[in-house]
Amino acid sequence: MSQQVEQFFENLWNDYIKLTPSAAKVHEVLGQGRDIINDHVAFRTFNLAPVRLETLAKHFEAMGYVAAGDYTFEAKRLQAKHFEHADPRLPKIFISELLVEEFSPELQAIVKQLVEQIDPAAVQQPEFLYSGTHWQISSNDYERLLEESEYAAWMAAFGFRANHFTVNVNELPDYASLEQVNETLKNAGFRLNSSGGEIKGSPAVYLEQSSTMADHMPVRFSDMEKVIPSCFYEFAKRYEVAPNKLYTGFVAASADKIFESTDARAAAAQNSDA
Ligand code: OOG
Ligand code: NI
To answer: What EC number(s) does this enzyme carry (predicted)?
Structure first.
């Protein structure tokens, strides 16, 4: 891997851990001082020029990544693609985008006004992928977005950066199952996303996934500061589709639940169920 690509992922990671202090603790608990290999990194965006999924993906294509799967999420009104690299040390990339035109005129107006503030030239730089927000938003507008789309609200508050990194559980020497990883995390005090069960997927779909609930961080809105869910860590175990060939795709039904790892209301509902 080129030094430039290595630096890109290092910068991406450094931005991510600033908003996700628990990520360092995940590495400590699961890695015990050894390196952790990441299965994938996920990004979010809006399907509006100049920040459409396809435009952001160009940065990864320039690094040698190729498109390898398409996904749709009807209820959340999202679509996504994943990208793979021939170098097995590089994480897969999962990029989703909000289908803005499918929401109310109010949501569309708020989101368009945010995206209009982005300098289109900035999007052409790879650093755009960890540049955060390019706008000011009021806490009222954030709450208004939250009513319709938790994803839109997250984007408005955090902008362009890694939404999560994902531990490659197959490469963790001390863990035979995702269940063991989950138990270790819970014993260390992490809260897992239990929407659709703590483990999403199964060997039958060649992929099992779990995730922490996002950390909470203070965000400065134009009128006030608010503590809201930021980013989370995911865990993925892949199964063979053929001898010595692991599944490399994603599973839409599971991904649909992973999205909820930034949803404080989903978390509150889980707590009251318990
Ligand atoms: C992406 C959720 C889906 C996966 O691995 O299936 C996902 C997101 O929350 O932005 O990461
Ligand atoms: Ni993911």
So the answer is: 1.13.11.93
Instruction: Identify the structural domains of the chain with CATH numbers, from first to last.
Output: 3-273 (3.10.180.50)
Task: List phi, psi (to 5°) of 128.
Answer: -55, -30
Residue nearest atom 8 of ligand 1, based on CA coordinates: 259
Peptide bond preceding 91: is omega within 30 degrees of 0, i.e. cis?
no
93 lines ligand 1 (CB under 6 A): no
Taking only the tens place, the pLDDT of each residue in 150-169 is: 999 999 999 999 999 999 99
Strand partners, 98: 46, 78
Predicted-assembly ipTM surpassing the 0.95 threshold: yes
Contact 247, 237 (CB under 8 A): no
Per-residue pLDDT tens for 120-153? 999 999 999 999 999 999 999 999 999 999 999 9
Nearest CA to ligand 1 atom 1: 259
